[in-house]
């Protein structure tokens, strides 16, 4: 009698395409509403904007912290991709930095603010990995501009990203879409102030993302 062949291990089922699309819609809607209303916006409002049911939201994200974490990670991943594109450019280093800053604002890096101010787990491995990737890539983009003598040497990654986040978030009590039309104008004013040689000495010291996370 021949030995029985052990059954092949079953592969984990792959998520269906519609399930992935629903998850992406939820994250996109959450990012928009966090920017417009803050991280405490009701989950049912996020579900409504995403065009899904409340059960779909909770099936993907068991609690608010999980959703906020996913939003922050997605924004950081897209910001990192913009930095990678800037590094791939071989022309003017400061022009590449400028394009990165404007792209980062369009990606709504102001959604990073909940990570700084919220009580949820800032040391989650996904957040740590995404944050380190952004910090390393943006440091490299800025480092190239500094090496070319185009970027003032007394600014750090945290200085740049926190100001971009603040400028790309509409002031409280204003209409979000109307505020958007001023974002790139004000970002360009910021960028002009970052050019070397510096016209003044900055108080304090350059800020990194690690210091922001610890604050």
UniProtKB/TrEMBL annotation:
Residues 42-61 bind DNA. This is HTH-type transcriptional regulator SrpR. The gene is srpR2. SUPFAM superfamilies: Homeodomain-like (SSF46689), Tetracyclin repressor-like, C-terminal domain (SSF48498). Residues 20-79 form the HTH tetR-type domain. The keyword DNA-binding applies. PROSITE patterns: HTH_TETR_2 (PS50977). Gene3D superfamilies: Tetracycline Repressor, domain 2. Keywords: DNA-binding, Transcription, Transcription regulation. The keyword Metal-binding does not apply.
């Amino acid at each position: 009698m021949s030995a029985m062949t052990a059954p092949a291990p079953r592969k984990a089922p792959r998520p269906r395409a519609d399930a992935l699309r629903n998850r992406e819609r939820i994250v996109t809607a959450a990012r928009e509403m966090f920017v417009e209303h803050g991280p405490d916006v009701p989950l049912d409002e996020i579900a409504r904007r995403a065009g899904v049911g409340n059960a779909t939201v909770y099936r993907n994200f068991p609690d608010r912290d999980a959703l906020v974490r996913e939003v922050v990670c997605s924004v950081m991943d897209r910001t990192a991709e913009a930095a990678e594109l800037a590094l791939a450019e071989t022309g003017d280093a400061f022009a590449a930095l400028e394009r990165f800053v404007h792209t980062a604002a369009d990606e709504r890096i102001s959604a990073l603010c909940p990570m700084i101010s919220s009580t949820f787990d800032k040391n989650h491995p996904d957040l740590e990995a995404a944050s380190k990737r952004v910090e390393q890539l943006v440091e490299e983009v800025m480092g190239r501009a500094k090496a070319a003598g185009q970027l003032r040497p007394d600014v750090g990654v945290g200085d740049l990203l926190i100001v971009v986040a603040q400028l790309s978030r509409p002031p409280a009590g204003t209409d979000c879409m109307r505020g958007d039309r001023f974002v790139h104008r004000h970002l360009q004013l910021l960028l002009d102030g970052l050019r070397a040689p510096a016209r003044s000495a900055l108080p304090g010291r350059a800020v990194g993302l690690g210091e922001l996370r610890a604050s």
